[in-house]
Design goal:
Shape: elongated
Strand content: under 5%
Helix content: over 70%
Radius of gyration: 39 Å
Distance between the termini: 93 Å
Length: about 800
């Protein structure tokens, strides 16, 4: 009979331990009561188990938070009675008093009795516990004890002594750190236990295990408080190491959400900067020097970040993989809350990833990540907008515009989305009509749902009409577009009197329509509002040159270059001013400086083939493509016929590459095109200095970059004209015009060549075509007057010469269209 009783007792004890590990507290209480009835010798153990079961079962339903304190004081009376029975001297003899005191500390914490909780941990001599291997359940009890002790210390008002306060904070930190390590170890042991169980039963079920494997609120709070307390103490470098240590621990099921939060916190800390005096990479092979330390990842081939950039992006990419893995794709109402929570976690990661990648110039990486986010971002405008912006930053402007159209649909009352789409159309896609329509749509949205952007809407509408007017060849339609642009710029100035961009564009519009003195007034007002704008200084220089104040213009551009030494636009204007002042040697020096500057700015891109990451400031070069002959109508790449011509050139160059040994230069083509423009400027200067051999060499350098550019053909034609090789020059200009029929300078020179060759009829028709394209070019009218004079049409010739004189009085050193678009 005694043997049977002992067998039953052992079986009950085994079942109790199994149910404790599985946290089946109702069953634990039931078995403990059976054990107490069958074996009075186990009374104190049974009391402890019943008290433990009642405490844990209650806290599963009502977590130990401040909102539940009053409820806990009543709901835990019975659990407290049983645990106190196990915590006396007899319980100490039975070996359960220590655990009973630890659980009483947890019970008092749940009841808001923090001093009593700390007293129980003192009675248990918690700080003197030896670091040895513990059963899984004991790991949790000890981990929670250290966490609760630290939380109780934080609730204590205590002494105001600075020394006592520092002592208490040090003890809190030590307890939080021990609790964090034990928490991670506890979860790892649970995983190991579950793996062993599956292996023993031979199951490979993908279903989650029955054991509750999520961290308790207390342990989760301890994990988060350990680095947070270090940050509050100003020990950011130590906090960084704490985050790293936690994330280096071997991952276990149930702490995914905590790891995701830690990755985001670590990334935030790294992005904040100035964490440590000097960046120190994570330790490669951490050692597990204590049985209370969690197992950490270690490998010979483990990647070790070398700087903040690599570590922040690495952490966020891992966080992205975790966040995406837990997203909910179903749009059913029953999954709404889970879907929104998962989406919130993912967007938080993506926002941090945006900061990290843009800061370090890894926009393509961001764009790829946001593209993956599209599958779970149905009808979510924030992610769609981020995706559109990343596409634009990566240079995929057409795709960005398509995504922005969807964002506009998702946010029908947001005018700012329409304005960004309009900017894309103006700045990169050469869609001025579509950009104007977006701006008008933004204005209508702003009138119904104001965001304070009405002035900016009028500004963007004006820019659209201004760009359309540049493209238009019909005089009446051109005038109407210019009037619309002027009206909108005036409205913008009235609505936003302190916005330098409104004054700048109003000045530019007046300059384009020949009102030089008024334009000067508004440009000076724009500079008063923002003196550091390089585009405004550029426009002021051109206006001064149009007023025949070339010396003053040169002073302005030189002063601007002291502020913006890497602005190719300003250097280009300076070279032309110096050339105009009959100082070709100085112009030559400036052009050579431009070539050196190009090397500093762009050579790294062309070697590494890394996409350009524009610096967001006025000091960056916004040098327009195809600006080597800045007195022609297509001097700005923003005009449709210029873009069309460049596309033809590109196609022809591809044909040339397939038929010859030519191959495109590696790297971003924009950078090479800028270099081609500098070579053509050098050729123009050498031609003015009567050095044809150097001109030929510069043309050859440009030809190796873009062999079939109409600009190169034009320069080659000028060289033949210089040598009076009329037939060859005619062929070059004809080829240039064949690629770009609106290339004014080629038309001018072709007409002049026809005149020298005696083909006056062809000369007249060619020059009239040039005048139709750009009626404000004095060279065209002067050449036409010469041709008409040779035909004996003296009265018409005189009228053309007079027009040339009138137009020249308002002609800048370079056309006003050479000023790049400015939006900042």
């Amino acid at each position: 009979m005694t043997t049977k009783t002992r067998y039953t007792t052992v079986r009950i004890e085994t079942d109790i331990e199994k149910n404790r590990e599985e946290q089946n507290w109702t069953k634990v209480i039931e078995l403990a009561e059976q054990l107490k009835d069958r074996s009075p010798n186990f009374e104190y153990l049974s009391n402890f188990l019943i008290g433990e079961g009642k405490l844990e079962r209650y806290l599963e339903e009502f977590p130990p938070v401040e909102a539940n304190v009053h409820r806990a004081k009543i709901g835990l009376i019975e659990a407290k009675r049983f645990l106190q029975l196990a915590a006396n001297d007899n319980g100490k003899k039975a070996g359960v008093a220590l655990d009973a005191h630890l659980l009483l500390g947890k019970l008092h914490y749940a009841c808001g009795q923090y001093a009593d909780s700390l007293n129980n941990y003192k009675l248990a001599d918690l700080n003197a516990l030896s670091e040895k291997r513990l059963p899984v359940r004991s790991l949790r009890i000890v981990a929670e004890s250290f966490a609760i002790k630290a939380l109780c210390l934080s609730k204590e008002s205590g002494s105001t002594s600075k020394y006592k306060k520092a002592e208490r904070e040090d003890e809190m930190l030590r307890c939080f750190q021990i609790a964090s390590d034990l928490s991670l170890l506890y979860m790892q042991e649970l995983d190991k236990q579950q793996t062993s169980s599956n292996s023993a039963t031979g199951t490979h079920s993908p279903q989650p295990p029955a054991i509750n494997k999520t961290l308790s609120p207390i342990l989760e709070q301890a994990l988060q408080e350990a680095p947070a307390l270090l940050l509050r103490q100003g020990k950011s470098c130590t906090a960084l190491e704490r985050y790293r240590a936690t994330l280096s621990a071997v991952e276990s099921q149930g702490i995914h959400s905590v790891r995701l939060k830690f990755m985001c916190h670590l990334a935030e800390l790294l992005l904040r900067g100035n964490t440590c005096d000097e960046y120190k990479p994570p330790i490669n092979s951490p050692t597990r020097d204590s049985p209370w330390k969690p197992k950490q990842y270690a490998s010979l081939n483990q990647f070790i970040p070398r700087n903040e950039c690599e570590e922040s992006i690495l952490v966020l990419l891992v966080a992205e993989a975790m966040a995406v893995r837990h997203t909910v794709l179903s749009q059913s109402a029953e999954f709404k809350e889970a879907r929104l929570n998962a989406f919130h976690d993912a967007t938080f990661v993506y926002d941090l990833l945006t900061l990290a990648t843009v800061r370090w110039g890894q926009v393509t990486l961001l764009q790829e990540s946001l593209e993956r986010a599209m599958k779970f971002s149905f009808e979510e405008p924030h992610v769609w907008r981020q995706h559109a912006l990343s596409l634009a930053a990566a240079g995929r402007y057409s795709d960005a515009l398509g995504v922005f159209k969807e964002v506009i649909r998702l946010e029908p009352n947001e005018s700012v989305n329409c304005l960004v789409a309009a900017r894309l159309c103006y700045e990169h896609l050469d869609f001025p009509v579509e950009g104007t329509n977006f701006s008008i749509e933004a204005k209508s949205k702003e009138l119904s749902h104001s965001l304070g952007l009405l002035g900016r809407c009028h500004l963007y509408i004006g820019i659209g009409y201004q760009l359309q007017a540049r493209m238009c060849l019909l005089k009446q339609e051109k005038q109407a577009l210019n009037i619309c642009a002027l009206d909108n710029f005036n409205n913008a100035v009235q609505l936003e009197p302190n916005d330098h961009l409104c004054e700048y564009y109003l000045g530019l519009q007046l300059a384009l329509t020949g009102h030089i003195s008024e334009a000067l007034h508004h440009v000076r007002t724009a500079l008063a509002l923002r003196s550091e704008s390089s585009s405004t200084l550029h426009l002021l220089t051109l206006l001064l040159s149009a007023s025949r104040q070339h010396a003053e213009a040169l002073e302005v551009v030189e002063a601007a270059l002291e502020e913006y030494p890497d602005c190719l636009n300003l250097m280009y204007v300076k070279a032309h001013l110096e050339l105009h002042e009959d100082d070709g040697e100085k112009a030559l020096v400036t052009a050579k400086q431009m070539l050196e500057l190009w090397k500093n700015l762009y050579e790294g891109q062309t070697i590494s083939d890394v996409p350009e990451c524009d610096r967001k400031s006025d000091t960056r070069s916004v040098f327009q493509l195809y600006t080597s002959e800045m007195s022609d109508k297509d001097s700005s790449s923003l005009q449709a016929h210029s873009v069309a011509a460049s596309r033809v050139e590109h196609a022809l160059s591809e044909v040339a590459s397939s038929m010859s040994s030519f191959s495109p230069r590696p790297g971003p083509q924009r950078a090479w095109l800028l270099q081609m423009e500098v070579w053509l400027l050098l050729a123009e200067i050498y031609l003015a200095l009567d050095q044809p051999a150097d001109v030929q060499q510069c043309i050859q350098e440009a030809t190796q970059i873009f062999p079939l550019s109409h600009h190169i053909m034009h320069m080659r034609g000028l060289l033949h004209m210089h040598k009076q090789e009329w037939a060859e020059s005619k062929l070059c200009f004809q080829n240039a015009v064949a690629i770009n029929p609106q290339h004014v300078k080629s038309l001018q020179q072709l007409g002049l060549v026809y005149h020298y060759m005696g083909s006056q009829g062809l000369a007249e028709s060619t020059l009239r075509e040039a005048a139709k394209v750009d009626p404000n070019n004095h060279i065209t009218w002067y050449n036409l007057g010469k041709v008409l004079e040779s035909l004996g049409e003296y009265e018409t010739a005189s009228s053309c010469m007079s027009t040339a004189l009138n137009v020249e009085t308002n002609s800048p050193i370079l056309p006003f269209t050479s000023v790049p678009l400015c939006f900042e």
